[in-house]
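call fold(seq) -> tokens
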Amino acid sequence: MTPSFSIVLPLYNQRALVGRALDSILAQGETLEALVVDDGSTDGGGGWVRSTYRRHPVRVLHQKNAGVSAARNRGIRAAQAPYVGFLDPDDEFAPGYLPAIRSLIQKFPQAGTFATGHFIQSRRSRRAVSHPALPPGFEGLLPDPLRLFLSGFPMHISSTVVRRQVLKRVGPFPKAMRNGEDLDLYVRLALDSPVAFLQRPLTLYYRTGISGSFANGLNSAPFLDTIRRALAAKDLGPTDREALREHANFIRIYEARILLETGEKARARALLRKVPTTFYRKRKLLLLALSHLPFNALAIRRAVLQSL
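ret:
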């Protein structure tokens, strides 16, 4: 029987947590397959999954370590279902997540992307993420998604399902990006087809520290290339064009933030001064101010995270 959903789970040295993620997938009560892409793990996680879940619809694919984007892309290529979802090995689906996605698919057949809200789970607390521009319990097609995304992405990659044909059309996750690869995909998805969204938290994103691997920096070039290609299209309206320019400004400001967090204040200042933003002007000015303070990298990091 062909599964309805293929859930792609990239795995790198998360053996201790991946069982929780897989159990949350299998508990959804849907016809599905879980595709675990072992991205060169050294803790035996892929083998553990293969032996532990051998009686379940779980496939394990192995590859040399190439990063999370390459692992997700491998899973997408292997997917058999018409709808592809994603779950990171340290995250979790809440009960009812995939049934809610199925409901969105039935109610909004014109959409190419389907998503719900999510919880952010830290060591001390859990909070539901909601978008300020959407009413509580919103269910429908996102209005002007490119503009809406400027004030925050209402979904997380672990709360998103995409038609497999749409993923083939928009292209893969950018392997060269070390942070923000999901933002690049979201922009391309919003340009391609409507996004159906339910503002109800039905997945758990576990935040155990500062998000992202800042030590590796950020290669913004693939995202900026995505923006340039989109702006070259002749059928974009002025609102979408302005939103795309501000998305480019966002990724440059994000890059400056990472530079600040790693102590490269002069490079951060030089980058920020070149960002012609209106929407993110306050954020830009805040980071510029922080770049002049005689704090060490840790103090700057704390100030940035508390202020943004």
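The chain has a mean pLDDT of 92.
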